């Protein structure tokens, strides 16, 4: 049994998709992040960074005590290695997958995430910040578009690199009319059974979380972006 600790946002969705693809038994341990439910000593032992997702593998391949893993792409790599699927063992294939996996973790997710933050959560609409992250997000989409014009999937065969990118494209990329190769790729993935739970089931992002403007209470702001989040590592 894999415990998946997280709420339903793009990064935890990556892990749900892979677990569904692998057919591995799992359960989701949910957290209301806006209420600060993750600021506990118990969660700190699983993830010292106080972010979601994280997993606890109660039956690690090496045996022994459960293994906790945090950071979504590290979780994808851990599970793919354990099950021997969606991450090649040969050096060329593995390198191709990890390059695009790290590209998502370092670029696509953070840039689309920051664009969404300044558009939806920031108390003031800061034109420079919105333009900065939106432009960089667009540039990264062009990189992805060019790659997919000549490849069905990002790293040749379907892999955890595609799984990592799909939730951010679905939730954060917006209209794909200028990116036909990405739209074709997304449609292909949408048809895979493992994605149904994320599109239509209990792992779908709630509609209220996709509003154009989110108004947080002072307590919610502190838990998500402010003082309580900043102070959490000092309280372990």
From TrEMBL:
Gene3D superfamilies: 1.20.1050.10, Glutaredoxin (3.40.30.10). It comes from Croceicoccus mobilis. Belongs to the GST superfamily. Residues 1-87 form the GST N-terminal domain. This is Thiol:disulfide oxidoreductase. Residues 90-209 form the GST C-terminal domain.
């Amino acid at each position: 049994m894999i415990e998946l600790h997280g709420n339903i946002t793009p990064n935890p969705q990556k892990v749900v998709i892979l677990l569904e693809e692998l057919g591995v038994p799992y359960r989701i341990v949910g957290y209301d992040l806006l209420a600060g439910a993750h600021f506990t000593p118990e969660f700190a032992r699983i993830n010292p960074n106080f972010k979601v997702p994280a997993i606890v593998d109660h039956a690690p391949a090496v045996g022994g005590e459960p293994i906790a893993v945090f950071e979504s792409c590290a979780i994808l790599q851990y599970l793919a290695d354990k099950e021997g699927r969606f991450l090649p063992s040969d050096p060329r294939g593995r390198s191709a997958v990890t390059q695009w996996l790290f590209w998502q973790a370092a670029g696509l997710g953070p840039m689309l995430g920051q664009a969404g933050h300044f558009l939806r959560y920031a108390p003031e609409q800061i034109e420079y910040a919105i333009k900065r992250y939106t432009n960089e997000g667009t540039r990264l989409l062009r990189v992805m578009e060019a790659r997919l014009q000549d490849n069905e999937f990002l790293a040749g065969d379907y892999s955890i690199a595609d799984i990592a990118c799909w939730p951010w494209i679905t939730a954060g990329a917006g209209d794909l009319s200028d990116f036909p190769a990405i739209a074709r790729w997304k449609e292909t993935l949408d048809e895979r059974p493992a994605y149904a739970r994320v599109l239509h089931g209990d792992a779908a992002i709630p509609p209220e979380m996709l509003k154009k403007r989110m108004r947080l209470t002072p307590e919610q702001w502190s838990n998500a972006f402010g003082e309580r989040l900043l102070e959490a590592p000092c309280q372990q």
